Amino acid sequence: MDRFVLWGIIIIAFVVVGQRLYRHFYDHIQPEHSLKVVITGKRIQEFMGRTPKEETELPPPRRQFYVSFSPRHEQEREFQVSEHLYEQLILNSSGTLVFRGRRFIAFEPDDISLDSD
User: Fold this and answer.
1) Could you tell me which of 71, 64, 62 has the C-alpha nearest to residue 98?
2) How many C-beta neighbours within 10 Å does residue 106 have?
3) How confident is the model over 85-99, as pLDDT tens digits?
């Protein structure tokens, strides 16, 4: 029985690693695409860390930042971005989204003329 559990864990590990490698190489061979989009949403996903039983304080949560882009006449797309970029992007702003497969490359906002007072 223990051998079946061990082999089950090994098989699951290979499947998970295989899927991640496939996604990485699949995204790598895809051509870059550019789309005119509007930023339609932003969200933060937090993951709590584990602590040893002796420690009483929880570690700070790990955070991932996501931004949703909506091109005209196409399905909305969501990409994980850095915290720095997440803070810079403004909802409902328009620009050009550059991506490769499922991987975010860049967002180039439309030029906005600034009035100098």
Assistant:
1) 71
2) 13
3) 999 999 999 999 999
